[in-house]
Amino acid sequence: MKSAQLKRIFFGVLFLLLTPHLPTHSLPAAAPPDIEEQTRAIAAELRCPVCQNLSVADSPSELAQEMRALVREQLEQGKSPEEIRKFFVSKYGDWVLLAPPAKGFNLLLWLLPAIGALIGLLLVIVVTRRWVKRSSDGRLTTAMEAKAPPAVPRAPEAADVPMDVDSQRDFYRRERERIEAEGKEIEFDFQSGKLSEADYTAMRRRLDSEAAVTGQKLASMPSSPAPAQKRAPEKKPAASGERRPLKTWQLAAGAVFLLLLGLSLGVVLMQATRPRASEQDTITGDFLTGTPGSGGGDALLAQGRAAFEKRDYGQAIEMFKKVLAADPNNPEAHAYMGLMLAQAGHTDGALSAFDRALAADPNFPVALWGKGMLLAQNGGDPREARRLLEKVSTMMPNGPEKSEVEKLIAELGKPAAAGNVAAPAKKPAPPPVAQAAGPAIQGVIDVDTKSKTSVDPQAVLFIIAKSTSGAGPPLAVKRIAAPKFPLNYTIGSEDVMMPGSVFSGKLFISARLDKDGNIATKEPGNLAGEYKKNPVDVGAKKIDFLLEPLK
Amino acid sequence: MALRRLIITLAVIVPLVALLAYGFFRDPRYIPSPLVGRPAPTFSVKLFNGENVNLADLRGKVVFINFWASWCPPCIAEAKELEATWQRLKDQGVVFLGIEIQDTEVNGRAFVDKFGVTYPNGADANGRIAIDYGVWGIPESFFIDPDGRIVYKHVGGIGAEILAAKAAEARERIMTTKEGKGDYQSIR
User: Cβ–Cβ of A61/B188 closer than 8 Å?
Assistant: First the structure.
């Protein structure tokens, strides 16, 4: 009775849970009133080929837009939705349908959820039935129930007793088992103090009388030892099997399984995902796809390198920053960041960037070269510089670049070999750059007549050569303290900011007379000017121009 | 009892794990094309030099169609190699046709100039040719035999060797159902 009730409730709840999930979308759609809606309906059934789990209707991608336009066009031509679907299937295969036809391997897709639900349902039914059966078996499960003893000894009622002898015997055997179990239970409750002595004796008496009745009945029955013995051992393990605690090896195996599952999940997830490098990028890692993602690290690096080569440092920094966001230990990005920092004059920042690159890859040539050059230039640590440059020179192909590095190594070797005496003496001197007397630009700088009188004798003149007209670090800067105008100047490869950059190509020449010698601050009275026909070729002469007050 | 339970547990878990593993080790972006072996969809495209090319007019020749964009790194990577292969194959009855997709014509012309590409190239303005060929990752290349049938498809960078080999096979009308795969970039 209880079981039937439970079943009804159970199925009621199940039905309520399942109804909202009934496939409402499979209901035949009423004829959409206009093309716009029809387009959307068809697009919603198509899978966007360049997205992850987005329909053509929902995707903002360019391809999805084109596909939507094509759907609309075909509808306008009078094609049916089925024809349009078939068209896309003929181009992209069944892949393009969000609900692929239920055949072949796809059948799994349709059947597995149903099978899963069915297995779950069966499991729930089996478990509930077992549970219901156990509690309706008449076994007293709690002491609370046991506390209410019936006034008269409860004997099996006539109606409950089965008719035939075999079943009767079984019935009384079960009765005996029940009485034994109940006896053990009240014994335990009494021992543990849950039951008062009066209650205990009353219950004991009742059970004893019940046991006597059952024993009598059993004794009066014709015995059939063979089947009884057969049945008894059959029942015992089944009954005890239900409550048997898990064995140690089972627990251990479970623990090991969980541990392994967790570990492998962790590893796979780490490998399978990565931070998005850009908005178009996906989080699916190379591990799954076997290819670098769109706009992934390699593409960004290539873009960064290209920007660096074009001296578009803002863009290059942007790209390398993105690479580092996705892969904080990328040696190439760090090395290029270091080159740009060095070029901008941030020696410390550049050194730490090179160090990070070398920490990730101790043999990364750009970082070895950059750090070696920087150390050689600053005269900070000629021995370390030499070590780094020697290392990088072994990796370089033969050519002018290699011989340049080798020349520098030879130069660095001299003070190191002569001991530390020569090194400090060399410090204030201009650094031993490879290109000592390379190509240069020459000309005369003068101050316009009105400002001539107001020129501060302590001011510092900066002559600047840039590869671009806009912002960005200069290629070369010449600093002249207390200049006397008109001033003959030469700016060339010995003035380049970054060791190793080549003073060549078309350059923008300008100059600034700075009162306090700090080019970063602007004071009233500073003068500036630039060559009127910028850019100029390296080697040009008579690049003359005037300095005027800053506006 | 314990053995039965173990068998039941394994019977449930093993197929499930196998199914998941199968799914996890597939490229989720890869779309197998139904086009190989079918007649190539015809189209007409306006080239950068102003001429019009209709695919139907190229019957009897092997046609190599390459979909590309100037913003796609693998396309940049293979541009020079394609041109070099074109120089080798152009007198052997092979026609190269580059279709620029999802890009501007200005960028396309600059790309062609930059890499010295001399074979015919044109822009697919509204993406119809790309959809007709089921393009989803570029560079994407198709080989069409003299009967106008698609005999091979390659997603991603193709390389001179495969290109020359497949062009020779296409001339003999040999079809390869298995698609080639190189370094590719999903289109936008």
Answer: yes
Average pLDDT rounded to a whole number, residues A436-451:
78
B118: Cβ contacts below 8 Å, ≥ 6 apart:
B83, B86, B87
Cross-chain Cβ contact B183/A95 below 8 Å: no
Chain B residues touching residue A108 (CB < 8 angstroms): 19
**Alpha carbon of B168: minimum distance to chain A alpha carbons (Å):** 26
Nearest to residue A385, comparing CAs of A360, A363, A346, A412? Answer: A412
Q: Which of A444-453, B32-41, B119-128, B143-152 has the lowest mean pLDDT?
A: A444-453
With contacts defined as CB-CB under 8 Å, which chain A residues touch B31? 49, 92-93, 95-96
- Partner residue facing A91 (CB), from B1, B132, B185: B132
CB atoms B31 and A62 under 8 Å: no
Contacts of residue A439, defined as CB under 8 A and 6 or more positions apart, other chains included, come to: A492, A493, A503, A504, A538, A539
pLDDT one-digit tens code per residue, A323-345: 888 777 888 888 988 888 887 77
Tokens 């009622």, residue located: A157
Q: What 3-state DSSP class applies to A106?
A: helix
Centre a 10 Å sphere on the Cβ of residue B134 and count the other Cβ atoms it contains: 23
Interface test with B, best of A50, A106, A268, A319 (most B CBs within 10 A): A50
Check pLDDT > 60 for residue A231. no
Task: Provide the pairing of β-strand B94-100 with B150-155.
Answer: unpaired
How many angstroms separate the CA atoms of A158 and A171, rounded? 12
Cross-chain residue pair B134–A89, CB shorter than 8 Å: no
pTM confidence score: 0.44
The burial class, CB within 10 Å (0-12 / 13-18 / 19+), for A204 is middle
Q: Which segments of A359-468 are extended strands (E)?
A: 440-447, 460-466
Residue B185 is encoded by which pair of tokens?
């970039």
**Residue-wise DSSP of A126-150:** HHHHHHHHHHHS----SHHHHTS--
Q: Is the peptide bond prior to A101 cis by the omega test (within 30 degrees of 0)?
A: no
Closest residue, chain B, to A285 (C-alpha):
B27
Contact B136 A92 (CB under 8 A): yes
The answer, yes or no, to whether residue B15 has pLDDT greater than 70, is yes
ipTM (interface pTM): 0.90
Query: How is residue B92 written in tokens?
Result: 């052997």
- For an interface test with B, the pick among A59, A88, A91 (most B C-beta atoms closer than 10 Å) comes out as A91
Q: How far is CA A506 from the centre of its chain?
A: 44
Instruction: Check whether the bond before A486 is cis (ω within 30° of 0).
Output: yes
CB contact under 8 A, B35 and A61: no
What pLDDT sits at residue A460?
Answer: 82
Over the stretch A93-148, which tens digit does the pLDDT of each residue have?
A: 988 998 888 777 778 888 888 998 999 999 999 998 888 887 766 554 444 455 54
- What CA–CA distances, in Å, run from B43 to A58, A465, B99, B118, B153? 29, 53, 11, 21, 18
